[in-house]
Write a structure and sequence with these properties.
The chain is α+β, with helices and mostly antiparallel strands. The protein has ten helices and seven strands. It folds into two domains: 86-238, Signal transduction histidine kinase, dimerisation/phosphotransfer (DHp) domain (Helix Hairpins, Orthogonal Bundle), CATH 1.10.287; 245-400, Heat Shock Protein 90, CATH 3.30.565.10. Strand 4 and strand 5 form a beta hairpin. The longest helix has 86 residues, at 120-205.
């Protein structure tokens, strides 16, 4: 009885020590468990534990948390090198084959023992029923390899078919382009030669006729047209020798406009220039001048042929926000173009001009491509046409051109 009374007194004394607040300046040291958070509701049993038991409980929880963390790290996938993956795959295959051998050897030994001791019927029964398991085991071992082989064969078959179809489509498109180009060349050269031949024949029928001088003049014009078409064709087919150097688009635009000063004055065209920056870049100034001349000349031709009132051509230039590209926009208020014509204007020998060769825009696009740039066209009937060319400031093919 006294022993129970003493134990109860000790428990109450320990609880009072735990619950007694420690005053500031109190010389008594704070117990180590006083910094622990308050136990949750329903955990009153913790108050009944002794200091030793509390320490053991906390140590057990720390060990459990460390063990769970180690398990999580082991389960977490990590990147394997190709050598590690190959080693693991080879090890898996070796283990699977060893397992099959451990199955096959007892099977063969048992069947042989039954054949020698118990007779053919016992051997046959065991060999058939156990053999089914051996066959399934072999299939399980070989199934991943068979699956991989069949998948590769099917993928190769699909890729071969796809590549063959793509090659056939590209070959068809190439042949069609060659046929269209050949027909265009024949048309551009044959028509003027036929006209000149007819005029020369008429001159030969009556050498003293007055009209021979006019016939000879027209024949020379037709032959000049043939020569111009051939020279443009050679220029289009020739690989452009782009010589990169530091240049500015503003200087190129000014040089191109100087070429058309007389024609601009004769047609009364108003030129609106908006150059937000000098357009510093790496490029071939002469090739860039030809690009601007071709586009600006096409705008003047469209305005002249349509007889546009108050003709205007706007030239804008600037840089993108990142400062990595420069651009030039040339816009006119001429008759414009249909969507079908816009899709064809960069093809060789496509032209709507009476005396055009159809190679100006094709050569322009080739020069733009040689600088690593892009050219876009936009137009609507009756609302003019717009061309936008964009170039990288560093130069598109600087590494591959001659200095």
């Amino acid at each position: 009885m006294n022993r129970h009374r003493d134990r109860h007194r000790n428990e109450r004394s320990r609880r009072s020590r735990r619950s007694r607040p420690v005053e500031e300046g109190d010389g008594a040291s704070r117990p180590w468990w006083s910094d622990l958070p308050e136990p949750p509701e329903g955990a009153e049993w913790l108050e009944e534990l002794s200091d030793r038991e509390v320490g053991r409980e906390l140590s057990r929880r720390e060990r459990d948390e460390a063990r769970a963390a180690r398990r999580a790290r082991r389960r977490r996938p990590r990147g394997l090198s190709p050598e590690e993956r190959a080693y693991l795959e080879a090890r898996r295959k070796a283990n699977a084959r060893m397992g099959f051998l451990f199955h096959l050897i007892p099977y063969a030994a048992t069947c042989l023992f039954l054949l020698l001791v118990a007779g053919f019927r016992a051997f046959l029964a065991v060999a058939v029923f156990w053999g089914i398991g051996v066959v399934f085991h072999w299939f399980i071992v070989q199934a991943p390899e068979l699956r991989r082989r069949w998948v590769e064969e099917e993928v190769n078959k699909k890729l071969t078919t796809s590549v063959s179809n793509e090659r056939r489509v590209l070959q068809t498109e190439h042949n069609r382009s060659v046929e269209e180009l050949t027909a265009s060349i024949a048309h551009e050269i044959r028509n003027p030669i036929t006209a000149a031949k007819s005029l020369v024949q008429q001159m030969g029928e009556d050498p003293s006729a007055r009209e021979n001088i006019e016939y000879a003049k027209v024949a020379l014009e037709e032959l000049d047209r043939v020569e111009r078409s051939v020279s443009h064709l050679l220029r289009f087919a020739r690989e452009e020798d782009v010589r990169m150097s530091d240049m500015t688009l503003s200087d190129v635009i000014e040089a191109a406009l100087d070429t058309f000063q007389d024609r601009i004055g004769a047609l009364g065209v108003r030129i609106d220039k908006e150059l937000d920056s000098e357009g510093a870049m790496r490029g071939d100034p002469e090739k860039m001048r030809r690009v601007i001349i071709n586009l600006f000349g096409n705008a003047l031709d469209a305005l002249e042929q349509a007889g546009t009132r108050d003709p205007r051509v706007s030239i804008q230039a600037g840089e993108n926000l990142a400062g990595s590209e420069v651009w030039v926009r040339i816009r006119d208020n001429g008759p414009g173009m249909e969507r079908e014509r816009i899709d064809k204007i960069f093809k060789p020998f496509f032209t709507s001009k009476a005396n055009g060769t159809g190679l100006g825009l094709a050569i322009t696009k080739k020069l733009v491509d040689a600088h690593g740039g892009t050219i876009e066209a936009a137009s609507e009937p009756g609302r003019g046409a717009e061309f936008l060319i964009t170039f990288p400031k560093a130069g598109g093919q600087e590494a591959g051109v001659s200095a």
